[in-house]
Design goal:
Elements: H1 3-14, H2 29-34, H3 41-71, H4 75-87, H5 92-112, H6 116-127, H7 134-144, H8 149-171, H9 176-187, H10 190-197, H11 210-220
Helix pairs in contact: 1-8, 3-4, 3-7, 3-8, 3-9, 5-6, 5-7, 8-9
Length: 229
Amino acid sequence: MTDAVKLMRILALSDSAFPVGAFAFSAGLESAVEHRIVTDAASLEAYARQILRQAAFTDGIAALQAYRSAAEEDYDGICEADAQLLLCKMNAESRLMTLRMGRKLAELSERILDDSTAARLAADIRAGATPGTYPVAQAVVASACEIPEKWLFASLGYGAINMVLGAALRCLRISHYDTQRIMFRLGDQVETIYDRAREMTFDDMSAFVPQIDIVASLHEKGTKRMFMN
C-alpha cells in the first residue's frame, strides 16, 4: 500500500463516525461535570490529559504488543495482549466500552478486509475464545493495512482525547475553539509518550488514575447520563 492509502486507512479508523459505537461513550465525563471536577476548559484539559495517559499505558502498550505479534504471525501473542488489557480495565463501563467496540470493529474488518488474522480474531470473539478488546482489534486491522505502529499509537491517543472532547461539547458551556485548542496541545505530547510506551511490556502496564475510576463508579449508577460510558 502507498503512504496515501495507509493514511486514508488510519483516518477512517480514527474518525468518530467510524461505525463501532464510539459516539456512545464519554469516559464518565457527565459525572465529572456533575461533581464539579470538570467545570471549564482548563479542568477539561486536565481531565483529558489523564484519560490520554491512562489509555497510552494500557491500551497503547497492549496495542503495540498485539501489532508486533500480528506482524510476526504470532496469534497467541495477540490473544495474550487481549487478555492482559482486559485485566487493566478497573470498572465495568470501561470493560463494556472496549468489548463492545472491539467486537464491532472485528465484525466490520471481516467485511472490508481480506485478512486471515482479522477473520480468525472475529471468529474467536464470537466464540468467546478471546475477549476482543478494541485496541487489540485496532492493532490487527492496522497490521493488515500496513499502518506504521506509531500511527496506530497516535490514533489510539486521538480517539481517547476526542471521546472526552466530543462529550464535553454536549455537557459543558465550552466552544469548539476550546476543544480544538486542547486537542492540539495534548497532541503535542503523543510522540514523547510513544517513545516511552514502545519499550514497555505487559508488566509495565499501569491503569492507576484513581479520580477517573471514582468518576466511572459514580457514573455507573448515576442519573445524569448522556452516554453509555
